[in-house]
Design a protein that fits this description.
Blueprint: E1 27-30, E2 34-35, E3 38-39, E4 41-45, E5 51-54, H1 69-91, E6 100-109, E7 116-125, H2 131-144, H3 146-153
Helix pairs in contact: 1-2
Length: 163
């Protein structure tokens, strides 16, 4: 069974110059060790919907028995873009059901500062839709998807030491 169409739209149905959250989540990561700047341990959401162990991938010396942050980011990015493209498809009377998105996220050294960085590549498969149409709608979905926007522009973020 498919989820019902979201109430959100691509229409200019917002106002104001201030960010207004539509949904907010809170996740706590705790416990575990670390290797290559990588946390292991447990991630839990405040509503209990997410509760999972985090592990380091084999390539970084871990046991890879549970998800790692790159897998979670790839999942979130692909799911968000899939949702945006599905919204745009429905608005053009196209069936979003056959859409699949493959996300590849790489973790590596940042040559600019020796720290770490991510690289993400997403491949969209949309059988049965003309390439030109799919390209136009993907361009529109790319502007709607906040994960795509984040990878292009960054996001406002604060990192503080709690009292």
């Amino acid at each position: 069974m498919n989820d019902p169409a979201p109430a959100l739209s691509t229409d200019n149905d917002y106002s104001g110059a201030t960010f207004r959250p539509i949904y907010t989540t809170h996740v706590t990561v705790s416990g575990g060790g670390s290797a290559h700047g990588r946390a292991t341990g447990r991630a839990r959401s405040s509503d209990g919907a997410l509760d999972l162990e985090l592990r380091t991938p084999h390539e970084l010396g871990g046991d890879a028995t549970h998800p790692n942050p790159e897998q979670l980011f790839a999942t979130a990015f692909a799911a968000c873009l899939h949702g945006a493209l599905s919204l745009v498809a429905r608005q053009h009377s196209l069936d979003p059901t056959p859409i699949t998105i493959e996300a590849t996220v790489a973790f590596g050294r940042d040559p600019a500062d020796g720290g770490y960085q991510l690289q993400a590549d997403l491949a969209v498969h949309w059988p049965g839709v003309e390439r030109e149409t799919a390209t136009q709608l993907l361009t529109q979905a790319n502007t709607l998807c906040p994960y795509a926007k984040m990878t292009r522009q960054g996001i406002p973020a604060t990192i503080t030491l709690a009292p």
